[in-house]
Write a structure and sequence with these properties.
50% helix, 605 residues
Length: 605
């Protein structure tokens, strides 16, 4: 599994090189670096798709037919001419002039910067939507510095990281070098597990998808993956539209989509400020809306927002300066308004919006009474890479079946996650599926739940999930004891190898145990496939219940608090033990201070 933090750290090395070797500002060098990351990531995907194409490649005259650009189009991937392939660039000689290379115009290239510029032009020629997007100012770097950057980004981890890697790395750069930009524009990257949750619950199958705050395009990438995995071709099934006020982000979005073989129309700049413009004229036309808008934006001109429309429930509160002081409900209104008569929306929103008062509450009441609020999910802290704030996921469905029109499914997932490190949490793949399974059962889609149980059994066997978890725990404990003994008995020069072998076996067992625990988590709550409210986790609340709670959409207000499981520890006994431990530590502390004092006296200090 790729350590994304290590990957970011490696890229940080490149930023240090840039800072030391050039006089560029962070804004100036951010894009050229991301261009190299794009090229490297594009190359890894190119090689992957090329391998697939060559599996069944026709043979003519005893030779396999070479791959062509059209082969990659059919696979939703970007074709790279040889001179734009990363392996070609990273293996060029130090003396570029001696290689006598020429660019597209036939001019001789005398620097590595010119060669990389030419590579970017060749890539742009393969994708109409990339025209004018990729950076082509690499001659500002010395050949030595640029060659070192190419080497740094020739990192095998980029072959393994899927999803919106460019956006993740871009945000890392913003956080390190351009914090002012990130704060001014409300830019922070949407974590992959949140995006996946949105896509999984919306289940896009075809039609128009709009992200009116599209950032680096993560929603498009995950939708493309979802649609392709369902056996469809994303570009044929979906039409992607994006608006993004920050032009840097829009460039990244186009780069990100291109490397995933996706086509889309992305507008940026002032005309793409969603508060004042419906840049694609899509009001009431979208099958799907997905977004992670900036939270709690203030100073939005209310008159301009009013005249821009898409406010079916009216404006939120306006201050004396005729400004909307908190734009959360502008966004929420837009997402609802963009949907067609059967459209679905899923978006990230500040947790405070589920219970805010004043005109926000009036808008929320109208939303609830429409019958189109589908699912609400509370997300805990530390899901964002540079922010620790909690958030909520909102889902609208204008095509809800009549039986669910007066209900909303509330899920409180604040205590359900995987810890990545001290400052980052996420949902694992199994956890994403488990949360999705609650929605399936609520919707009556029991066949999908049954298929998930079969996935678990394919990994764990046909034994009861709880029994398998106990067996795996016992196996792990036995193997640990065996490992300890084997390492102790091994020759000195063999100890590390023996330990590494056991570590690998233990890691595999622990991964399977984690899967078993997730299976137990799901099966204990929903058995063979029947939705039920689970205290502390989920509740299908009626319109009457929501009305009674003042139209709050906070999951915690409905699901209640899960009972605390007895851990088998005698509280009074444990407190006594802790007290004795504390007294012992205090005694050791006094003894240490006395020893230090004596030492100082002996030294005459």
């Amino acid at each position: 599994m790729v350590n994304i933090r290590k990957l970011e750290s490696d890229l940080w090395e490149s930023a240090d090189l840039l800072r030391a070797g050039s006089k560029l500002t962070s804004n100036q060098y951010c894009m050229p670096v991301l261009g190299l990351i794009f090229l490297r990531y594009a190359y890894s995907r190119f090689k992957l798709v090329e391998k697939e194409i060559l599996k069944n490649r026709p043979v003519r005259g005893g030779r396999v037919l070479p791959v062509e650009a059209s082969d990659f189009v059919s696979k939703s991937a970007l074709f790279l001419p040889r001179e734009a392939q990363y392996e070609y660039l990273v293996n060029l000689p130090a003396d570029i002039a001696s290689a006598e290379l020429t660019n597209q115009s036939g001019h001789t290239m005398n620097s590595l910067g010119e060669v990389v510029n030419n590579a970017m032009e060749l890539v742009e020629a393969q994708s109409e939507q990339l025209t004018g997007v990729l950076p082509k100012d690499y001659t500002i770097f010395s050949d030595e510095l640029l060659a070192e950057l190419l080497r740094i980004f020739n990192n095998s981890a980029l072959d393994e990281v899927g999803g919106d890697v460019i956006g993740r790395i871009y945000e890392y750069f913003l956080n390190k070098f351009a914090k002012n930009i990130a704060q001014d524009d409300g830019v922070f990257f949407t974590p992959k597990s949140l995006v996946k949750m949105i896509v999984n619950i919306l289940e896009p199958q075809g039609g128009v998808l709009l992200d009116p705050a599209c950032g680096s395009g993560g929603m498009f990438v995950q939708t493309g993956d979802f649609v392709n995995a369902a056996g469809m071709e994303a570009n044929a099934a979906m039409t992607f539209y994006g608006q993004e006020k920050v032009e840097y982000n829009a460039q990244l979005c186009l780069m990100n989509m291109a490397v995933h073989g996706l086509n889309g129309l992305i507008k940026s700049g002032d005309e793409a400020n969603t508060f004042y413009h419906d840049a694609h004229n899509l009001d009431g036309c979208c099958d799907y809306v997905m977004a992670n808008p900036p939270f709690n934006v203030d100073k939005v001109n209310s008159e301009s927002a009013q005249s821009a429309g898409r406010l079916p429930f009216g404006l939120p509160s306006v201050n004396k300066a005729k400004e909307v002081g908190n734009a959360n409900y502008l966004w929420i209104s837009y997402f609802y308004s963009y949907l067609n008569e059967r459209g679905r929306a899923g978006f990230v929103m500040a947790s405070s919006a589920t219970d805010s008062s004043g005109k926000d509450r009036d808008i929320r009441q109208k939303l609830v009474e429409s019958g189109h609020v589908d699912v609400m999910v509370s997300v805990g802290n530390n899901f964002f890479y540079t922010k620790s704030l909690p958030c909520s996921l909102w889902f609208f469905d204008k095509g809800k079946p009549e039986a669910l029109r007066d209900k909303v499914l509330f899920i409180d997932a604040r205590n359900y996650y995987t810890v990545v490190d001290r400052t980052l949490n996420e949902w694992s793949e199994w956890q994403l599926k488990n949360l999705n399974a609650i929605v399936w059962l609520y919707r009556g889609e029991t066949e999908k739940y049954a298929a998930l149980l079969e996935e678990y059994r394919a990994v764990l066997g046909n034994a009861a999930f709880s029994q398998r978890a106990e067996e795996l725990s016992a196996e792990i404990n036995t193997l640990r004891d065996e490992a300890k003994k084997a390492v102790a008995e091994a020759a000195k020069r063999e100890k590390k190898k023996v330990q590494a072998d056991y570590d690998q076996r233990l890691a595999a067992l622990e991964e399977t145990l984690t899967t078993a625990k997730e299976a137990v988590w799901l099966y204990e709550k929903f058995g063979d496939g029947e939705y039920r409210d689970v205290l502390g986790l989920c509740k299908a609340a009626s319109l009457a219940e929501i009305t009674e709670k003042g139209y709050s959409l906070t999951p915690g207000a409905y699901v209640g608090v899960a009972p605390v499981e007895d851990d088998g520890v005698d509280f009074a006994q444990r407190m006594g033990e802790i007290h004795r431990e504390l007294l012992e530590l205090q005694k050791e502390s006094h003894e240490l201070m006395e020893a230090i004092s004596r030492n100082w006296e002996e030294m005459g200090l």
